[in-house]
Write a structure and sequence with these properties.
The protein is mainly α. The chain has helices at about 10, 15-95.
Length: about 100
């Protein structure tokens, strides 16, 4: 205890050492953030491309199914008209005989 206390700056690097640690932590955090952001952007782009393709396919499917439904409804109408005509002929034939 005979000599005056000079601190521990030489062992830890003092304020400059602390700033270097902060800088290295920031650089690591920035690199991690950029990597995560790039990964998220790639995932987003892939999702948007897949969604666009899926939407186009479903839109085409809706168009085809709508057209098919209209065709089948028209065919049903024609069949009902034929049935009504045939039923009238049958009723007339039964009434005659």
């Amino acid at each position: 205890f005979d000599s005056p206390y000079k601190g521990m700056q030489s062992e830890n690097g003092g304020v400059v050492g602390m700033l270097e640690v902060i800088e290295s932590d920031f650089a690591r955090l920035e690199a991690d953030t950029k990597a995560a952001e790039a990964s998220a952007q790639k995932e987003y782009d892939t999702f948007m491309t897949d969604s666009k393709v899926d939407k186009e396919a479903k839109t085409k499917d809706i168009e085809h199914k709508t057209a098919k439904k209209q065709d089948e409804e028209q065919a049903l109408t024609v069949k009902r008209e034929d049935l009504e005509g045939t039923q009238k002929e049958l009723d007339a034939a039964l009434a005659y005989f």
